[in-house]
Design goal:
Elements (H helix, E strand, L loop, with lengths): L5 H11 L5 E6 L4 E9 L5 E12 L2 E12 L4 E6 L12 E2 L2 H24 L7
Parallel strand pairs: 4-6
Antiparallel strand pairs: 1-2, 1-5, 2-3, 3-4
Subcellular location: Cytoplasm; Cytoplasm, P-body
Subunit structure: Component of the heptameric LSM1-LSM7 complex that forms a seven-membered ring structure with a donut shape.
GO molecular function, one term: mRNA binding
Length: 128
């Protein structure tokens, strides 16, 4: 078993600068989580306090409260600090309820699935 080298300490100190700050965490499955960083380890496992999942579909968005949230480091793609002085959401975005955003997500997913199935059905036509 090897001990942490200088490069490992640099990673830790860079996350240490985000402690007690509001962050946006982008996960491997595409979800976007917001919350205050309370803890982390050398594997980039993080603990967010007051976490919420921001779901965006077209011009609609909703923040789904999650509470205290532990994220496994292998699922983290990006961590960034939010600028509290700037407006988080563009003016054209409309905040909707969780039920409405779930319906919009399902409609978007169904449209994508239909498009994919239609493309498969049309493969026999060599349009090139």
């Amino acid at each position: 078993m090897s001990w942490a080298g200088p490069e490992d300490i640099f990673l830790s100190t860079s996350l240490a600068s985000y402690l007690d700050k509001k962050l946006l965490v982008l996960l491997r499955d595409g979800r976007k989580l917001l919350g205050v960083l309370r803890s982390f380890d050398q594997f980039a496992n993080v603990v967010l306090e007051g976490a919420c999942e921001r779901v965006i579909v077209g011009d609609l968005y909703s923040d789904i409260p999650l509470g205290l949230y532990v994220i496994r480091g292998e699922n983290v793609v990006l961590i960034g600090e939010l600028d509290l002085e700037r407006e988080e959401i563009p003016a054209h975005m409309i905040c909707v309820s969780v039920a409405e955003i779930r319906r919009a997500q399902k409609a978007e997913r169904d449209a994508t699935d239909l498009k994919g199935s239609m493309r498969k059905r049309m493969e026999f036509l060599d349009l090139d």
